Structure formats: C-alpha cells, structure tokens
Amino acid sequence: MSPLDEHCVFCKILSGQIPAAKVYEDEETLAFLDIAPFNFGHTLIIPKRHCHGLSDMPQESRDALFRAASLLAPVVLRVTGAAGFNLLMNNGQAAGQEVPHAHLHIIPRFMDDPVLLHAPQKQYSGEEMAQLQEKIRCRLAARQESQEQK
Ligand code: AMP
User: What pLDDT, on the 0 to 100 scale, is given for residue 126?
Assistant: First the structure.
C-alpha cells in the first residue's frame, strides 16, 4: 500500500506531481519553502508517509522530523539573517491546520515582527489549574501503563 494519499497536496509534492522549492531531503522527511511565507525563508518539513499530525505519526517520522528541524533551523537563520525562529506545528483544524499532512514550520523572525498568535491569554481561577494538572497526570499515567502492557 502506498504511504501517500492521492488527494493530499503535500503527497503530490512528494510524488513530484506538483513542484516545490525543496531545500532538504532524507529517508523519512522532505523540506521545502512555504509558498505563502510569514517571512522569506519560512520552511516546511514533512514526513514522507501521509499522516495527519503528531498523534498518528510513526515514531521514526517524529524523530526524523525533529532531527531535520534541528539541522535546518540554524541554516535558515543564518541565510535569512533572522534573529530567532518559531518552530510550529498546527494539529487539527481548530489549531489552524490547513493542510492535513503533518508538518513542522520553521519561521524566521526579526526583532520588530508582529506576534504570530494574537489570542488573548486566560487566567485560571481557584482550583482549576490544580484540577487540570491532576487530570492530565492521571490520564498520562494510565496511557503509559496500557502501552507498557502491550
Ligand atoms: P498549516 O496551516 O499549518 O496547515 O500550514 C500549511 C502551510 O502550507 C501554509 O503556510 C501554506 O502556505 C503552505 N502550503 C500550502 N500549499 C503549499 C505548496 N504547494 N507549496 C508550499 N507550501 C504550501
């Protein structure tokens, strides 16, 4: 079975059906320039197998994606003269994901750039923070236990 999805725009880049400004490739990943960059040099890194995001990505792809990001980010920074970068991954439509093929953004940033996320920040009231902390820790422990039993 092909690891690609015929309807996915990033899979079409992988198969060569549509062009991209490729900057890096290894066995598991491909990186190319974003067609509508926040800043010039904005780079996307994708796994070579179709998956939607972090949750359904095979471990090898996950490792390879972050390895490629570690390699590419300093180079993008150097070449663009940026002072910093955002490493961003949108997971799901609610988080702003437009292309449903997992990808990391490397976005070069300059000191006077506008902030990327404009949403106002919230404040916990009373016990809310402690309750949420406990829920996450319990769910994580249960998940780890069930994975150990497999
Ligand atoms: P996201 O909102 O995280 O899904 O980001 C998808 C990104 O893919 C956007 O920044 C788009 O500009 C970019 N994009 C979509 N199609 C292409 C393409 N054919 N080549 C390069 N970048 C693309």
Answer: 85
Distance 120 CA to ligand 1 centre (A): 25
pLDDT digits (tens, 9 = 90+) for 15-72: 999 999 999 999 999 999 999 999 999 999 999 999 999 999 999 999 999 999 999 9
Ligand 1 close to Cβ of residue 20 (< 6 A): yes
- 99 Cβ inside 6 Å of ligand 1: yes
**Cβ atoms within 10 Å of 1's Cβ, excluding its own:** 3
Q: Report whether residue 36 contacts ligand 1, using a CB cutoff of 6 Å.
A: yes
